[in-house]
């Protein structure tokens, strides 16, 4: 029998053996198994720009406040359509080489929202750049720090053709006559954030593999008719980050919906097109991305009906049939 009280050599050897065994069991074997993970079919690898953006994400320690992991619990349903699986991280967490592990991006804190599907929830490059420059511009109660070193303040005459000018409202500028230019690191970081989208899982038995997915899909089907959809709630989830809950937008960055000619137009076709295809107001405001591939006809109709009947707006409701008809026109134009 080992006597650890008097024979310190046995104590050290036993402790060392237990440590090595646990390291192999808990760290080394799972790490080797992870290398055999296959990517999800149709999952897109990172481009060079997106990979560079991942490096900026790690160097700025964004995972200290943001997670990239959707858990198999109901409260996480808002961050993705399904719980995360190892294959979701095949490209972004692939081991760099024999000696270097991939950067840890899963995070453990949700001081800020989870970013698993942020590329779909917020596809606007202009919004992300404005948010990085000063989060309070778009989210007044945000506790996220600003990242001014990712931007450059220049004179209007110094702006070059290829520079990305950020539409910062004048009250957030130290010198209103200056222009804010996004540096390469800011642009690449936004490229990476826009890359973060949950890939659809193939097969008909996905819900059996991920139990929580069955409820998520059932909820979406249950809300498939317009009467069951809450336009105000959808607006808060999809549109309020730019246009604000008040509908006032952000002066110089995102237009107000209050009294808007497009919103209140008797013919809602242009408004529906804006949501489906997006809108580029050139120098007036940031570019709005299209949401046609993310929102159903009923969801778009519910959101637009909310916009046309809120904040003093008084226009006729939009039906899912109206949206379906415009979507058909858009698809015909694209296929010409």
UniProtKB/TrEMBL annotation:
<feature type="transmembrane region" description="Helical">
    <location>
        <begin position="12"/>
        <end position="32"/>
    </location>
</feature>
<dbReference type="InterPro" id="IPR036909">
    <property type="entry name" value="Cyt_c-like_dom_sf"/>
</dbReference>
<dbReference type="GO" id="GO:0009055">
    <property type="term" value="F:electron transfer activity"/>
</dbReference>
<dbReference type="Pfam" id="PF02433">
    <property type="entry name" value="FixO"/>
</dbReference>
<feature type="domain" description="Cytochrome c">
    <location>
        <begin position="48"/>
        <end position="197"/>
    </location>
</feature>
<keyword id="KW-0812">Transmembrane</keyword>
<keyword id="KW-1133">Transmembrane helix</keyword>
<keyword id="KW-0479">Metal-binding</keyword>
<feature type="domain" description="Cytochrome c">
    <location>
        <begin position="226"/>
        <end position="311"/>
    </location>
</feature>
<protein>
    <submittedName>
        <fullName>C-type cytochrome</fullName>
    </submittedName>
</protein>
<dbReference type="InterPro" id="IPR003468">
    <property type="entry name" value="Cyt_c_oxidase_monohaem-su/FixO"/>
</dbReference>
<keyword id="KW-0472">Membrane</keyword>
<keyword id="KW-0408">Iron</keyword>
<dbReference type="InterPro" id="IPR009056">
    <property type="entry name" value="Cyt_c-like_dom"/>
</dbReference>
<dbReference type="GO" id="GO:0020037">
    <property type="term" value="F:heme binding"/>
</dbReference>
<keyword id="KW-0349">Heme</keyword>
<dbReference type="Pfam" id="PF13442">
    <property type="entry name" value="Cytochrome_CBB3"/>
</dbReference>
<dbReference type="GO" id="GO:0046872">
    <property type="term" value="F:metal ion binding"/>
</dbReference>
<dbReference type="InterPro" id="IPR051459">
    <property type="entry name" value="Cytochrome_c-type_DH"/>
</dbReference>
């Amino acid at each position: 029998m080992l006597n650890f009280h008097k024979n310190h050599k046995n104590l050290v050897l036993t402790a060392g053996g237990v440590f090595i065994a646990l390291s192999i069991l808990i760290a080394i074997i799972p790490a080797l198994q992870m290398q055999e993970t296959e990517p999800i079919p149709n999952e897109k690898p990172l481009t060079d720009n997106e990979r560079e953006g991942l490096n900026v994400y790690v160097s700025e320690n964004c995972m200290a406040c943001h997670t990239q992991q959707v858990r198999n619990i109901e409260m996480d349903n808002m961050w993705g359509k399904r719980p995360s699986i190892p294959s979701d991280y095949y490209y972004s967490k692939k081991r760099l080489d024999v000696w270097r592990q991939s950067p840890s991006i899963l995070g453990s804190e949700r001081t800020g929202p989870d970013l698993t599907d942020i590329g779909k929830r917020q596809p606007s490059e202009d919004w992300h750049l404005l948010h990085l420059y000063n989060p309070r511009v778009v989210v007044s109660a945000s506790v996220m720090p600003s990242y001014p070193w990712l931007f450059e303040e220049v004179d209007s005459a110094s702006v070059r053709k290829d520079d990305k000018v950020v539409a910062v409202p004048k009250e957030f500028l130290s010198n209103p006559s200056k222009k804010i230019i996004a540096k390469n690191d800011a642009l690449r970081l936004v490229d990476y954030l826009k890359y973060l989208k949950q890939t659809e899982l193939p097969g008909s038995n996905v819900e059996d593999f991920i139990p929580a997915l069955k409820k998520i899909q059932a909820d979406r089907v249950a809300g498939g008719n317009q009467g069951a959809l809450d336009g105000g709630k959808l607006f808060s989830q999809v549109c309020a980050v730019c246009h604000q809950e008040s509908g006032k937008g952000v002066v110089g960055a995102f237009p107000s919906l209050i009294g808007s000619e497009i919103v209140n137009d008797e013919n809602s076709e242009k408004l529906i097109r804006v949501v489906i295809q997006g809108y580029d107001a050139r120098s007036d405001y940031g570019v709005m991305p299209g949401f046609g591939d993310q929102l159903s006809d009923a969801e778009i109709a519910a959101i637009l009906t909310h916009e046309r009947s809120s904040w003093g707006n008084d226009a006729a409701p939009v039906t899912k049939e109206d949206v379906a008809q415009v979507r058909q026109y858009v698809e015909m134009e694209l296929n010409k």
